[in-house]
Amino acid sequence: MSPSGSTYARLSSFYFLYYGFLGAMMPYWSLYLQAVGLDATAIGVVLAVMAAARVVAPNFWGWIADRSGRHLQVIRAGALLAAASFAALPLGSGMAWIVAVVLLHSLFWNAILAQFEVITLASLRNAAERYGLVRLWGSVSFIVAVVGCGLLFDRISVLQLPWVLLGILLAIAAGAWLIRDPDSGLRARDAEGIGTRLREPALAAFLLAAFLLQVSHAPYYGFFSLYLEQYGYSRAATGQIWALGVIAEIGVFAFAHRLLARFSLRSILLASLLLAALRWLMIGFGAGHAVVLLLAQCLHAASFGSFHAAGIELLRRYFAPAQQGRGQALYAAVSFGAGGAVGALGSGVLWEIEPRSAYVVAALAAVAGWWIVLTMVRGPRVGTVRAGGEGGAEGGRA
């Protein structure tokens, strides 16, 4: 049975709120940290701490959710506590205070998305290939937030950012009570570990490639706005340039079901990683040329959009329903957590030496991920999506 229109609306609205927070934070967080007096190395440390929380927190919350079957309750608790902890940020401005607050906030914030992905896939049932059509609303809100905040912070101080973010967090906490878990009380509880899954070479290779891809994204997520300021872009223009990348991402999510039906997961992952490497080189050496920069931003469709869509589908195929919480959490921990932390620390150090060098290293990390997928990802589960949203068990392209 296909999901109803109200199901699509509830799922889409929560993605809208969640990614609205990221749209307000990601482009302007480094500008805020610079405004309170942190240098590039210190900014890198703060970003690394936030990413490092994603190594532990998603797995911890995923284990609780899968053992108890209470994915929705984990989301609601995480949203409430993430807002409550972040409310302490304006009370201080020293590095130690900022690190302590963002660490606590991140531990709760990272309870949310992996478990919501589980509920989304369960809600979509046999239409799982339509995930991109739901997820694209997160991209829409990212654009609204990033452009709106760019215009806002050209008029008021970026030091007001914590209050903007707190308002969105409170909306997310309220929105969490509108979510419905379609399998509440029905989803099998599974005490079995997921270690046996990781012995499958294709899955292990995917996770390693995802780690490297997030390492490569670190100079972009952490320092791209600072880089644009060096070239004289206003904050309104910076927000619009960020938005262009997400517009390209929306295009991918809108047609992800067709992409997955036509190409193998392996092919999509390979193309995504190679185009990511090209993107970082274009930004590193062409940020002063508007045409090059805008083309590079369009490649966000590949460096994030298509890779993430293929990755979510791959995880759905490799993990049983009762293991999905831990599977999604593992993906978040390895890529956005460990990859983001290593990348943030490295980028902070490289930025002090020469900003362009951070993008060169980013390109090399993406190429390394491409090589791993090329040589290790094989098998029927990385074929194309078949009728009913399942990957071809036989004859699928690999």
What does this structure look like?
With 398 residues, this protein is mostly helical. The chain has a single domain (5-180, 194-389), classed as MFS general substrate transporter like domains (Growth Hormone, Chain: A), CATH 1.20.1250.20. 75% of the residues lie in helices and 0% in strands. The protein has 15 helices and no strands. It has helices spanning 5-35, 40-68, 71-86, 95-109, 113-124, 131-152, 161-175, 201-230, 235-254, 256-262, 265-286, 290-298, 300-318, 324-353, 355-376. α8 (201-230) packs antiparallel against α13 (300-318) and α8 (201-230) packs antiparallel against α15 (355-376). The longest helix has 31 residues, at 5-35. The relative contact order is 0.17. Mean pLDDT is 86; it is low at 387-398.
Could you give a short description of this structure?
This protein is mainly alpha-helical and about 400 residues long. It has a single domain (about 5-180, about 195-390), classed as MFS general substrate transporter like domains (Growth Hormone, Chain: A, Up-down Bundle), CATH 1.20.1250. It has 15 helices and no strands.
